[in-house]
Amino acid sequence: MNTNQPSLFQTVIKWFVPVAAVIAFGAWMYISPEGALGKLDAIGYAVCHRIDARSFQIGDRQLPLCARCTGEFYAAGIALLFQAFISGKRSKLPSRGIIAVLILFFLAFGLDGSNSYLYLLKQTSGGALDQIPNLYVPNNTLRLFTGSGMGIALAAVLFPVVNQSLWREADDRPALEWKNFGILIALVIVVNLLILTDSPIVLYPIAYISALGTLSLLVLVFTILWIIIMRQDNTFDHPRQLWLPLASGLTLALLLVLSIDLLRFQFTGTWSGFPGLGG
């Protein structure tokens, strides 16, 4: 039951969360590699294999995420921002037709990912695994496009779910309709084609957008988890009231990234891709 007077626990949490967020951010900044791109690498390191040959490059430096994850998380970030501007508090999932297209995106992502993984096994394991059939030779172009399709699908589902959890009076209309869905797909296709030019002018912003898109998805998921645990779902009227749940989500996201980074670095001893997986 909600009351107008905050409990002692809620008061303590209100002060504790900002302090925890600063500590988590400071710890992550300390252990992550130097430089702006190094900090982005540390985000990608928590969710991506970071195999050099499967990543886009700025000169001799790979992006924070592989080609597939770059597509997935930059597209998810752009799709979330796009819906935030055009959909506001709309909380209904897309129509069945759009959902069907999103399922196709998901299947393409799974198919290309599975085929690419089998190809990697053949390259790195040898022996009997050499006989594993592949549908086609995987490449970074397909990884980028199937990844970005998956990113659109994630954002198209996550955005209305977030609105369903946050607002006291949500807008009961689809968060994404056909016209805007088409605009979003066209926008992502254009960005993908720009990425494939390998121009640093494009790749530098994409490095930031993809890494921050990764962090944004984690923050949103943990924010909703926090709201459910605190029993605050459907109690918000204005975005400015969300500072504490968002700070909590950021803290939990940074702690997760920090934990995975430390564990993986302890295991591999490198901030690059997993040793021995260079295919």
Helix proportion: 55-70%
The count of DSSP E runs of length 2 or more, i.e. the number of strands, is 4
Count of helical segments? 8
Describe the sheet with the most strands: 2 strands, antiparallel
Order of helices and strands: HHEEHEHHEHHH
Beta-strand share of residues: under 5%
What's the number of structural domains? 1
> What quaternary form is this?
single chain
Distance between the termini: 55 Å
**Structural class, from helix and strand content?**
mainly alpha
What is shown here, in short?
With 279 residues, this protein is mainly alpha-helical.
What keyword list fits this structure?
4 strands, 4% strand, 8 helices, globular, 279 residues, two-stranded antiparallel ribbon, mainly alpha, two-stranded parallel ribbon, 67% helix
Give the SSE map.
Blueprint: H1 8-31, H2 36-45, E1 57-58, E2 61-62, H3 67-87, E3 90-92, H4 96-125, H5 140-166, E4 171-174, H6 178-195, H7 200-229, H8 243-268
Parallel strand pairs: 3-4
Antiparallel strand pairs: 1-2
Helix pairs in contact: 1-8, 2-7, 3-5, 3-6, 3-7, 4-5, 5-6, 5-7, 7-8
Description:
Helix 1 packs parallel to helix 8, helix 5 runs parallel beside helix 7 and helix 7 crosses helix 8. The chain has one domain. 67% of the residues lie in helices and 4% in strands. By secondary structure, it is mostly helical. Strands 1-2 form a two-stranded antiparallel sheet. The chain has a two-stranded parallel sheet with strand order 3-4. The longest helix has 30 residues.
